[in-house]
Amino acid sequence: MTWLVTGGAGYIGAHIVRALTAAGLQPVVIDDLSSGHASFVPDDVPFVNGSILDLALMEKTLRDNSVEGVIHVAGFKYAGVSVNRPLHTYAQNVEGTRVVLEATANVGVSNLVFSSSAAVYGTPDVDLVTEDLPKRPASPYGESKLIGEWMLRDQGIATARTESPLRHTSLRYFNVVGSIDTSIYDSSPHNLFPLVFEALIEGRTPRINGDDYNTPDGTNVRDYVHVADIAAAHVEAAKLLISESPIEAAYNLGSQNGLSVREIMDAMARVTGIDFTPEIAPRRAGDPDRIVATGELAARDLDWRNRHSVDDMVRSGWEARRAAN
């Protein structure tokens, strides 16, 4: 069975491509390389350099490769930047998802795994985020992901009695880190791990934004999950769709416990062997004390669990980033 991975030349998408191959499913990639890297796509994986906004190209890619399912990862993923670029965010994430759905409907592809985000919840004031928590996204990015989920829901309802009813699920997750292949690294200019790695490589001192939060060590607590575990969950979701087994509309891929920024910094120093004391900078506006999700539903249906320690996350991410130099 062939699965199209939109955004498959990106950090997360490229890991999903490798997980599909390992599971015996044939991946195909479409990516416009706006943030991805052609070198992330294995030589033996068909690669279409183009935009998901191009309906004709999407339909051609689906038909030419006899695609039976789509893992939709492509999108503009920078929540903070989306506040200043809402129209760009909506074009990429909302219109992009609409075009993907139109293309799949026109070609008769009826399985879709949507890479959503825990940003759909906003900043909930609870210890553990569950799937039924009210959705209050705090950025255009989070809003765009929630709209994407709505579109999947509505298309599923609309096609329920057709020859190709849409089967779908959305995976919501927070901070994805680490690597399974030194040829793939997180090149985001906004995520914590690459920011710390770049500082250490350049001889600068990493910084913590605020150490007076209501947490055990005063720094923010977040869900950090290894990209290998995220990729595996996407593949399990794809397999569940193929089997026509019951599946939830959405799953949290959460750690249940979370890690603080200071714990991440301690692991960075421990694993890299670079001794440093992080600088303390002012808080960032709107940063909540703690956001951690439960992954109970995903554990039940998608064999989801954290298989990697914080040291595993740091070590694999650091090795991949150094290999890129």
From TrEMBL:
A single BP term in Gene Ontology: galactose catabolic process via UDP-galactose, Leloir pathway
Enzyme Commission identifier(s): 5.1.3.2
Reaction catalysis annotation: UDP-alpha-D-glucose = UDP-alpha-D-galactose
Domain of life: Bacteria
All copies of domain NAD-dependent epimerase/dehydratase, residue ranges: 3-240
GO molecular function: UDP-glucose 4-epimerase activity
InterPro entries according to UniProt: Epimerase_deHydtase (IPR001509), NAD(P)-bd_dom_sf (IPR036291), UDP_G4E (IPR005886)
Keywords: Carbohydrate metabolism, Isomerase, NAD
Known cofactor(s): NAD(+)
NCBIfam families given in the database record: galE
Family in the record: Belongs to the NAD(P)-dependent epimerase/dehydratase family.
Protein name according to UniProt: UDP-glucose 4-epimerase
Species name: Microbacterium halimionae
